[in-house]
């Protein structure tokens, strides 16, 4: 038993280094050849103009928005300078924290729900499935179809008592179920809709990550007596960790900044139950004409996104080193 465990552990170590059956891999402690200093300077000079242009294109809107968040103006006039009062009013507003809570739930479900479904589908399609390429293209449709079309279709499915799902729920004995009129049900529908339109992206990310893994490492693990769960836990997840962290970063940004999914489906209702921070910022600026608080909400969202991205990026670097 001890010999089998040590053999399997050795197989896992070979797999982490990308070594298949009979492979040698890169010797431990060896260093990859870096870029020559002269070439590095040349590449820097070539890339520098593009970086400066991107910074200039993005710096002005950010600086202007930062100034607006410190004033009490509207869409027409800049207003007077009031310092951090907009941030104070936002952070002491109960509706802001209600929106923040739902944004957190929406993001967690969107990221990990779409990742779990996408990874599962990618693993299924990795095997010998008849018409696997056709099914992969078919599964991309929720992501490819414009959000306004998908939201319209889901509204037709659940919005009114005459919609198919409420009619089905009533036929099954659940009574009159109004999915978008009940706060809890509306939140569930919005989160499920987000997973539905996002899992194809995760499926493609995970399919690409799985395709880069040498199948010989799995053969070596099977020879050493590894079970399917052991190979998934100790091989699939570590070997695809870098792509997983990158997909989490991207999907977190997509979820937090996702305006059309929520707005087209529920407009943030009922009674603001599905109001995310980006929807609240939009309503504050363009419906209530309070530019300062709305931009302050956007800046607070940006700070949180930067922190989350830095934490996940450290996971990417750690996975790359391992």
TrEMBL record:
<dbReference type="Pfam" id="PF00528">
    <property type="entry name" value="BPD_transp_1"/>
</dbReference>
<keyword id="KW-1003">Cell membrane</keyword>
<keyword id="KW-1133">Transmembrane helix</keyword>
<dbReference type="InterPro" id="IPR035906">
    <property type="entry name" value="MetI-like_sf"/>
</dbReference>
<dbReference type="InterPro" id="IPR000515">
    <property type="entry name" value="MetI-like"/>
</dbReference>
<feature type="transmembrane region" description="Helical">
    <location>
        <begin position="294"/>
        <end position="313"/>
    </location>
</feature>
<feature type="transmembrane region" description="Helical">
    <location>
        <begin position="177"/>
        <end position="197"/>
    </location>
</feature>
<feature type="region of interest" description="Disordered">
    <location>
        <begin position="16"/>
        <end position="35"/>
    </location>
</feature>
<keyword id="KW-0813">Transport</keyword>
<keyword id="KW-0472">Membrane</keyword>
<keyword id="KW-0812">Transmembrane</keyword>
<protein>
    <submittedName>
        <fullName>Sugar ABC transporter permease</fullName>
    </submittedName>
</protein>
<feature type="transmembrane region" description="Helical">
    <location>
        <begin position="42"/>
        <end position="63"/>
    </location>
</feature>
<dbReference type="GO" id="GO:0005886">
    <property type="term" value="C:plasma membrane"/>
</dbReference>
<feature type="transmembrane region" description="Helical">
    <location>
        <begin position="102"/>
        <end position="125"/>
    </location>
</feature>
<comment type="similarity">
    <text>Belongs to the binding-protein-dependent transport system permease family.</text>
</comment>
<feature type="transmembrane region" description="Helical">
    <location>
        <begin position="245"/>
        <end position="265"/>
    </location>
</feature>
<feature type="domain" description="ABC transmembrane type-1">
    <location>
        <begin position="100"/>
        <end position="312"/>
    </location>
</feature>
<dbReference type="GO" id="GO:0055085">
    <property type="term" value="P:transmembrane transport"/>
</dbReference>
<feature type="transmembrane region" description="Helical">
    <location>
        <begin position="137"/>
        <end position="157"/>
    </location>
</feature>
């Amino acid at each position: 038993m001890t010999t089998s465990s040590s053999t399997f552990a050795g197989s896992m170590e070979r797999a982490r280094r990308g070594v298949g059956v009979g492979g040698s891999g890169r010797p431990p402690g060896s260093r990859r050849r870096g870029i020559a200093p002269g070439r590095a300077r040349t590449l820097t000079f070539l890339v520098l103009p593009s970086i400066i242009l991107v910074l200039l294109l993005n710096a002005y809107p950010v600086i202007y928005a930062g100034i607006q968040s410190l004033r009490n103006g509207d869409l027409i006039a800049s207003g007077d300078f009031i310092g951090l009062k907009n941030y104070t009013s936002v952070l002491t507003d109960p509706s802001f924290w209600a929106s923040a809570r739902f944004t957190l739930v929406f993001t967690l479900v969107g990221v990990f729900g779409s990742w779990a479904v996408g990874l599962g589908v990618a693993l299924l399609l990795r095997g010998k499935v008849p018409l696997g390429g056709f099914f992969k293209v078919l599964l991309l449709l929720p992501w490819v179809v414009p959000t306004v079309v998908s939201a319209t279709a889901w509204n037709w499915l659940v919005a009114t008592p005459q919609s198919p799902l409420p009619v089905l729920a009533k036929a099954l004995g659940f009574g009159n179920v109004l999915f978008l009129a009940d706060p809890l049900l509306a939140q569930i529908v919005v989160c499920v809709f987000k997973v539905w339109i996002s899992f194809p992206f995760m499926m493609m990310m995970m399919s690409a990550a799985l395709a880069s893994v040498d199948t010989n490492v799995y053969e070596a693990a099977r020879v050493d007596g590894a079970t399917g769960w052991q190979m998934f836990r100790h091989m699939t997840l570590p070997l695809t960790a870098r792509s997983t962290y990158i997909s989490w970063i991207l999907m977190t940004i997509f979820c937090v900044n996702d305006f059309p999914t929520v707005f087209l489906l529920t407009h943030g209702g009922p009674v603001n139950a599905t109001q995310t921070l980006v929807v609240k910022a939009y309503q504050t600026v363009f419906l209530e004409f309070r530019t300062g608080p709305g931009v302050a909400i956007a800046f607070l969202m940006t700070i949180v996104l930067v922190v989350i991205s830095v934490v996940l990026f450290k996971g990417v670097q750690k996975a790359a080193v391992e």
